[in-house]
C-alpha cells in the first residue's frame, strides 16, 4: 500500500462526508507518518513500512473490538467499523498451505532439524508482514511434531 493511496482515499472520504471512514484512514496515515519520522525516512516512505504499520494498527483495533465490554454496543460497533475499513488496506496474508510450502521449499535444511526455535527464527524474518505469526507457529509445530 502506498501512503499516497491512503491520503487520496482520506480526501475522498472527507468529500463524501463519511466521518467513520475518514477517521479510520486518518489514523492509518498518522501512524505511518509517525513511524516514518521515528525511523528517519519521513520524505521517502516505503510500501513495506506502510504495510507494517497498517498490520500493527489492525491488530490494535482488533484488540479494542475483542476487549470492549458487551454493554457498550455503540462503541463496539464503532471499533468494528474502523477494523473493517482498515482491513481493506491490509496486505493480503499467506494461507496456511502457502506458508507450509514456503517453509519446505526455502528452509528444507532447517526444517529437517525439527528444531522449532531455529525454524521460527529463520522463517519469521522472511514472512514478517506477509503471514500471521500464529499461523506460522502452528505450521512449524506440525512440521516438528
Please explain how this structure is put together:
The chain has 8 helices and no strands.
Topology of helices and strands:
Layout lengths: L2 H13 L3 H20 L8 H21 L5 H17 L6 H11 L1 H5 L3 H12 L5 H12 L1
Task: Explain briefly what this protein structure is.
With 145 residues, the chain is mostly helical. It has eight helices and no strands.
The biggest sheet amounts to: none
Low-confidence stretches: none
Oligomer: single chain
Overall shape: it is globular
Task: Evaluate the radius of gyration.
Answer: 18 Å
In percent, how helical is the residue content? Answer: over 70%
Number of helical segments? 8
Structural class of the helices, strands and pairings?
mainly alpha
By DSSP, the count of extended strands is 0
Mean pLDDT: 89
* SSE arrangement, N to C: HHHHHHHH
- The span between the termini is 37 Å
Strand % is under 5%
Amino acid at each position: 500500500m502506498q501512503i499516497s493511496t491512503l491520503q487520496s482515499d482520506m480526501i475522498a472520504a472527507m468529500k463524501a462526508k463519511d466521518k467513520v471512514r475518514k477517521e479510520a484512514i486518518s489514523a492509518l496515515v498518522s501512524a505511518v507518518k509517525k513511524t516514518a519520522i521515528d525511523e528517519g525516512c519521513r520524505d521517502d516512505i516505503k510500501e513495506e513500512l506502510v504495510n507494517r504499520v497498517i498490520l500493527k494498527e489492525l491488530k490494535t483495533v482488533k484488540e479494542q473490538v475483542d476487549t470492549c465490554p458487551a454493554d457498550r454496543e455503540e462503541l463496539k460497533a464503532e471499533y468494528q467499523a474502523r477494523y473493517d475499513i482498515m482491513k481493506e488496506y491490509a496486505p493480503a496474508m499467506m494461507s496456511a498451505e502457502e506458508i507450509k510450502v514456503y517453509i519446505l521449499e526455502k528452509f528444507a535444511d532447517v526444517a529437517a532439524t525439527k528444531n522449532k526455535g531455529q525454524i521460527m527464527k529463520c522463517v519469521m524474518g522472511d514472512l514478517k508482514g506477509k503471514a500471521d505469526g500464529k499461523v506460522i507457529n502452528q505450521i512449524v509445530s506440525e512440521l516438528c511434531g
